[in-house]
Amino acid sequence: MGLDTDTIRRDFPVLDRTVNDTPLVYLDNAATTHTPTQVYDTYEDYYSRYNANVHRGIHTLSHEASQAYEAAHDRLAEFVGADGREEMVFTKNTTEAMNLVAYGWGVNRLDPGDAIVTTEMEHHASLVTWQQIAEKTGADLRYIRVTADGTLDMDHARELIDDVELVSVAHVSNVLGTVNPVRELAALTHDHDGVILVDGAQSVPTRPVDVKTLDADFLAFSGHKMAGPTGIGCLYGKRHRLEAMEPFLFGGEMISHVTFDDSEWNDLPWKFEAGTPPIAEGIALAAAADYLDDIGMDAVREHEAALAQYLIDELDARDDIEYYGPPGDVERSGLVSFNVDGVHGHDLSELLDNHGIAVRAGDHCTQPLHDILDIPGSVRASVYVYNTRGEIDTLLDALENAQRKRDHLLTDHYHDLIADYYQNPTNPDGITNPTFRKHSAETTCGDEGEFHVRVDETGRIEALGFQSDSCAVSQAVASLLADHLTGAHIDDLTDLSGTVDALLDGDFPDMRRDCVVGPEDVLQAGAREHLTDS
């Protein structure tokens, strides 16, 4: 039996709002889910009834806050099958939880030549963190390959997980939707006396997760992706692992005894929670766990899988759309990343927003994975407990004739120059014999391009062109600048601030400001570098 989405949706008042005079269709849940009234009522209750700092306060409010905050640790431990509060550390988010392992365990345990194994589909929270730890310790960082169908190459995994110290793996890919075989990877890791850290940011909110079944040494996840508040995350750790691990942050609360010469650490989990902790957020996150358990995590997984399967089937039937990751008949999460031929992700995201649909566009903090896929970025639609099949149909309808709708958007929402210069660009293939080039890759949105500038002996711009895989807006602005600045002096290019805004009379949507002023910033930086070097 499916979820009663009508009843569930009543718990989320934000879903009643309109965007651009259209009912909101929120499909950006892999970034952040919405919060039900039951959770923010709990949050408000803390501030209205017993707001106080926890521990060491001999008064009623502090005692009540301490009890609720400690019970929240127990509740989150129960949610993932841990053995109590001693195995559940509260952090700011998944990223901080992973950094806690990296600096509390990795820096103190890894030696030159030790092996860290992760995967090509990792979020930057893992990949960048372990890059830094490898650089600091001299450890060897290895990546398990991603296959053409978006799954891990387990033969390659077995080759790499050999005399390993640590494996860090996403349980669910935030781009491909792949559900990785964590239990098998944990067994391989433990066979070689290694430790495994699981990034549960996309799995804990969307399916039953039991740390004992997975046999994970560490599991990191965030509150804001599981109907909870922002500013709160969790690190599960096997008790003996946490007991042997050094703190990452120091100060009040995490100590038991301090002298001028030395300090002793507090008991678990408090030795890892320095300073005033996220009290209201932790208590509210426990309410989110209650909310999801009342729905049933098996039901959450089945609901997401059904909607993702429907979306994939419909996208797969269209010649102008490519989706990424495993096919719908393979276990995967409720997120689907895709691209529409001829329409950059940022333009498509704005087009969908114009229809009241919220999606995410860019590289989703997985730039190396997008390099492997050979795409600058992707558009990601992700569902949760309150989404419906009708909302997927709304998305599919909006994707029809996307190029034509994009062109109308440029005409209707921007200064006339944007449409003119996009349709009739100036030197869009670059120029010959440039005096200097300036390349830019804006990884957050998948924009990439290069300006070519030829300067004559008097310092005048003789020709200016560009090559770009950027969005239509950025390409139009690059073309506008190529035309407008030809004949200007090179010194004029060193201070372009406000140039594009003035040329367009400020006539563009503010949420696309970065796309509008980005080319101006790139060209300005290139001119300054050229004059410094010459």
Describe this structure in words.
The protein is of the alpha/beta class and 534 residues long. The chain has 4 domains: 5-31 and 296-400, Aspartate Aminotransferase, domain 1, CATH 3.90.1150.10; 35-93 and 223-237 and 249-295, Aspartate Aminotransferase, domain 2 (3-Layer(aba) Sandwich); 95-193 and 202-213, Type I PLP-dependent aspartate aminotransferase-like (Major domain) (Aspartate Aminotransferase, domain 2); 414-533, Sufe protein. Chain: A, CATH 3.90.1010.10. 41% of the residues lie in helices and 17% in strands. The chain has 19 helices and 20 strands. The radius of gyration is 26 Å and the shape is globular.
What's the quick description here?
The protein is of the alpha/beta class. The chain is built from 19 helices and 20 strands.
